[in-house]
């Protein structure tokens, strides 16, 4: 990279920049060799490319460049209406950037297309001084917004339209900025779901977000069930926005000619139920039961189950009225009518409104006949095992606990390993695979292999998990921490949904049974930070910890349930021997001992590893800021001001290497 000068003084420079992408989000990381004096952050520009790698042209002949949007103002300024500016005006004060608007617009509930190629240009900015090239004019424009009454409710005119007022795009004195050096370009990336034999996608179900808060408050009132009603309606734009490509990808998969074997834990979503009913003559379905509500079982699946029965679908009812073992699968196998190669749809996404649009989840199609055949065999084994279980008479009646047979458990003890056409391999595991249905001390065989691969990590272990085990025990969380603390050069980065899954969680204790005031409260930290190990739990900005221009956020659609529902592990994503672990398996002992589960271990497919790594980084980075703020509040400490720094001290941790190990790893490429 070229050095940069300010007058005769040689300053630090950007020495590396690299971009990574899946079909939803791009992650860009860069590194500097020293402090850039006076740097107030970086401008980030998305540059669209044609198939030959040249900059694309707009219809008017100009180059197709988009300066990425920013919402956080400098100290002394305000963004009270949460209107987007650009990183030319409010630059990025760190060495990485998640391009969340690559597909998702923030000014309307429409998404940009995929199958595009982009690169990113990173350029340092500082206060404008003589001789510096000027950044775009920071003078705030006048924009129209809804006029609101003293209660925050939009005012309507007689014709029913909202009354508008003109306001400045932001408040406070403009801060003219200039460029401290030339832009540095990243590598080009292709925004796509398709990666060889794999097709991957991810939900956008992060609800603790400012844009969603503003949508819910658009009419001035946030109704109790407003969000769940929105994401349950197949025609709702917010639902489509949050679900991303999962529904279109599943519809494309199931609209193909042929037959389908389906194994589901939850089935409540109307749009997906209609998809099954539209293919009713082509289906064989194993549908497990959902948890107990009051005295009734299978409440969540009840209506969909009855609809399938009434439609004459071949349906098999599994693991009924069971609180300790569940049929946790969410997969579909396609059997083409012309005898072509079979394929399988799997991942973490439950077939519910919250699974599609209220949680972070992933979905994967594997177009590999051998792997699909392994899933077919597992489906048939479940069906055979079902014959040994007591069939429900009435679906909501109480019954003795069902459990999988020892023969079925034994059949899942060994994996199937299949090579792919690009030199990688796919290893398929199924559960339960231990003879005891009660979780013991012995490590299950699937997790033994996962742990072995984790111990071989050379650079990074990344994960997302719902609730694999309490306090990180008997699951990948504790294993990752143990490995990371023994090898402190290893980067361990992860996020979990449940407070109880945090490694530093301490359960509450009832001391004197007759004295409630004597109870010991649970300790529920939001973060775990030691060496290069960083684990956070999903958190939000709430009414008790408002900061600057940020408002209170949602966390779940129903006030309860999973936030991060992914079960994903990525090891050394930038290496040829990278590993991706995914499926329905919660990545803890409980799943292997007790549940019907499927888990794939993909070795050596870097494109897939990078796509899943970007998803992990997206979710982790979103919740990390919120978790850190929540943890500081929990400890009674002062948090971030909510504004950009007005000097260059924000670089210090990166320069002295006390922070930024994760960023440096990805910047190096």
UniProtKB/TrEMBL annotation:
<dbReference type="GO" id="GO:0006793">
    <property type="term" value="P:phosphorus metabolic process"/>
</dbReference>
<keyword id="KW-0378">Hydrolase</keyword>
<comment type="similarity">
    <text>Belongs to the phospholipase D family.</text>
</comment>
<dbReference type="GO" id="GO:0016042">
    <property type="term" value="P:lipid catabolic process"/>
</dbReference>
<comment type="function">
    <text>Could be a virulence factor.</text>
</comment>
<dbReference type="InterPro" id="IPR051406">
    <property type="entry name" value="PLD_domain"/>
</dbReference>
<dbReference type="Pfam" id="PF13091">
    <property type="entry name" value="PLDc_2"/>
</dbReference>
<dbReference type="InterPro" id="IPR025202">
    <property type="entry name" value="PLD-like_dom"/>
</dbReference>
<dbReference type="GO" id="GO:0016891">
    <property type="term" value="F:RNA endonuclease activity producing 5'-phosphomonoesters, hydrolytic mechanism"/>
</dbReference>
<keyword id="KW-0964">Secreted</keyword>
<dbReference type="InterPro" id="IPR001736">
    <property type="entry name" value="PLipase_D/transphosphatidylase"/>
</dbReference>
<dbReference type="GO" id="GO:0004630">
    <property type="term" value="F:phospholipase D activity"/>
</dbReference>
<dbReference type="GO" id="GO:0005576">
    <property type="term" value="C:extracellular region"/>
</dbReference>
<feature type="domain" description="PLD phosphodiesterase">
    <location>
        <begin position="560"/>
        <end position="591"/>
    </location>
</feature>
<keyword id="KW-0443">Lipid metabolism</keyword>
<protein>
    <recommendedName>
        <fullName>Phospholipase D</fullName>
        <ecNumber>3.1.4.4</ecNumber>
    </recommendedName>
</protein>
<keyword id="KW-0442">Lipid degradation</keyword>
């Amino acid at each position: 990279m070229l050095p940069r000068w300010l007058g005769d003084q040689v300053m630090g420079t950007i020495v590396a920049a690299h971009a990574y992408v899946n079909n939803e989000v791009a992650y860009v990381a860069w590194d500097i060799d020293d402090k850039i004096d006076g740097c107030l952050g970086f401008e980030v520009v998305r540059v669209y490319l044609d198939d030959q790698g040249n900059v694309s042209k707009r219809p008017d002949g100009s180059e197709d460049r988009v300066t990425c949007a920013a919402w956080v103002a400098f100290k002394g300024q305000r963004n009270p209406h949460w209107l987007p500016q650009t990183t030319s005006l409010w630059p990025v004060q760190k060495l990485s950037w998640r391009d969340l608007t690559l597909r998702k617009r923030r000014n309307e509930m429409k998404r940009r297309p995929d199958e595009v190629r982009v690169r990113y240009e990173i350029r340092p900015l500082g206060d404008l001084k003589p001789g510096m090239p000027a950044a775009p004019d920071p003078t705030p424009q006048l924009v129209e917004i809804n006029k609101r009454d003293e209660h925050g409710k939009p005012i309507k005119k007689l014709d029913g339209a909202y009354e508008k007022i003109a306001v400045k795009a932001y408040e406070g004195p403009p801060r003219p900025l200039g460029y401290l050096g030339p832009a540095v370009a990243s590598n080009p990336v292709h925004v796509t779901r398709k990666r060889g034999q794999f097709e991957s996608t991810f939900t956008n179900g992060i609800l603790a977000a400012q844009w969603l808060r503003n949508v819910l408050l658009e009419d001035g009132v946030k109704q109790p069930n407003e969000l769940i009603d929105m994401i349950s309606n197949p025609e709702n734009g917010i639902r489509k926005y949050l679900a991303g490509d999962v529904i279109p990808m599943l519809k494309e998969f199931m609209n193909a000619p042929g037959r389908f074997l389906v194994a589901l834990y939850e089935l409540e979503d109307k749009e997906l139920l209609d998809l099954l009913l539209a293919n009713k003559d082509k289906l064989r379905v194993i549908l497990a039961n959902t948890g107990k509500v009051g005295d009734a079982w299978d409440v969540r699946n009840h209506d969909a189950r009855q609809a399938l029965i009434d439609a004459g679908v071949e349906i098999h009812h599994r693991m009924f009225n069971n609180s300790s073992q569940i049929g946790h699968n969410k997969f579909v196998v396609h059997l083409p009518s012309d005898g072509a190669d079979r394929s399988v749809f799997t991942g973490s996404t439950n077939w519910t409104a919250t699974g599609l649009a209220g949680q972070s989840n992933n979905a994967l199609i594997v177009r590999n006949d051998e792997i699909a055949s392994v899933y077919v065999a597992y489906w048939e084994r479940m069906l055979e095992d079902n014959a040994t279980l007591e069939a429900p008479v009435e679906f909501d009646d109480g019954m003795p606990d069902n459990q999988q047979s020892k023969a079925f458990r034994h059949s899942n003890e060994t994996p199937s390993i299949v090579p792919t056409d690009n030199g990688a391999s796919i290893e398929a595991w199924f559960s339960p695979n231990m003879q005891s249905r009660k979780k013991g001390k012995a490590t299950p065989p699937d997790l033994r292999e996962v742990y072995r691969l984790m111990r071989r990590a050379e650079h990074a272990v990344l994960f997302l998990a719902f609730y694999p085990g309490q306090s990180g025990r008997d699951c990948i969380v504790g294993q990752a921490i143990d490995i990371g603390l023994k090898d402190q050069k290893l980067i361990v980065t992860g996020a979990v949904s449940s407070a109880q899954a945090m490694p530093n969680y301490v359960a509450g204790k009832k001391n004197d049974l007759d004295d409630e005031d004597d109870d010991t409260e649970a300790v529920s930290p939001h973060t775990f930070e030691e060496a290069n190990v960083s684990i956070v739990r999903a958190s939000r900005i709430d009414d008790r910890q408002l900061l600057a221009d940020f408002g209170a956020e949602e966390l779940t659609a129903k006030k309860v349930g999973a936030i991060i529902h992914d079960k994903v592990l990525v090891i050394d994503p930038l290496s040829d021997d990278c590993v991706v672990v995914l499926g329905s398996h919660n990545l803890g002992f409980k799943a292997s001992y007790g549940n019907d589960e499927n888990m794939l271990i993909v070795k050596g497919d870097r494109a897939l590893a990078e796509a899943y790594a970007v998803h992990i980084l997206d979710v982790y980075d979103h919740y990390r800021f919120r978790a850190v703020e929540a943890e500081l509040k929990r400890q009674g400490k002062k948090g971030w001001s909510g504004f950009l720094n007005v000097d260059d001290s924000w670089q210090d941790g990166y320069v002295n290497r006390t922070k930024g190990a994760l960023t440096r790893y990805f910047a190096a490429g």
